[in-house]
Amino acid sequence: MTVADRPAPLMELGMAMAMLQRRDGNPVFSPWRRRLARSLPRLAHPILQLVSPLGAGPMFMDPPSDDVEEGMDQILSTPRPQARAELRRMCAIDRLITPWVRGLADRDRDAWQVLKLAVHASHASVIAEAWPRIQAGFHAETAWRSRILAQQGLHAALTGLAPSIRWRGMTLEAPFPRDLDLTLHGHGIILQPALFWADHLLTAPHPDGRLLLIYPAVTPLPLRDASTPADSLAALVGSTRAQALRLLVRQHTTTDLARELAVSPAAASMQAKILREAGLIVSQRDGKAMWHWCTPLGLDLLAHGRA
């Protein structure tokens, strides 16, 4: 099991559009829901025909890309059979078969152009301005989860994702709106926190075959201060080293680190050396590659640096 290393903007958009339609009186999201209901542009409204308040949506709508334009390209290139199957699944849950939805299923060009405009409009209205806060909340959450996983193990990391989760032998049981059995077949799990979701666990297949387990972050976005605070971690260790430490929640080679930081391998090696000497990461050579990852102290610093 691994923890996702970055938030997915289109997945967060889907979660936000689901929460917008909830009528369960959630005290955390209620004021946010009222504000968004007033400000959401009309161009974005078609998205509501596709996303259920149960958190479900067509799989093609939330590709696990951290780049919106790349994700939009993946949405628009959805093959007709996949689009039809996913839209049929959503209509079987609780979405209406509207003329526009039929147009999407038939790969009508105008219908898909409406979808493109709706995704861009809703992203600009809901996600774009909040993106620094989403990133900050995501990194704080994943650092904390990684710490639990490292210290307490798999069972504790999974049962702490949401209330009423329990192990029955080798089976993890969690509340869900309908009966659903999932088997991993040895592919593993990626934990993906959602800043715009506050209910049951959600699942989706990852392109590499693993199961994406989407869970509500402990601190959802409406509880994060609207003005993004100064990056205290960057003030402490420097912005490049802070970014490197966040990346090293997952193992990276020096080459990987250099690419992610947009610096030379020599500069990445120097940053890793400083973090290692501070006890924040460990490094291990494997052939020609040097691998780096956070120590418990580094994870603690990440978890508390965003508090």
UniProtKB/TrEMBL annotation:
Keywords per UniProt: DNA-binding, Transcription, Transcription regulation
Pfam family, one: HTH_5
GO MF terms, alphabetically ordered: DNA binding; DNA-binding transcription factor activity
Domain HTH arsR-type: 221-307
Name of this chain's protein: ArsR family transcriptional regulator
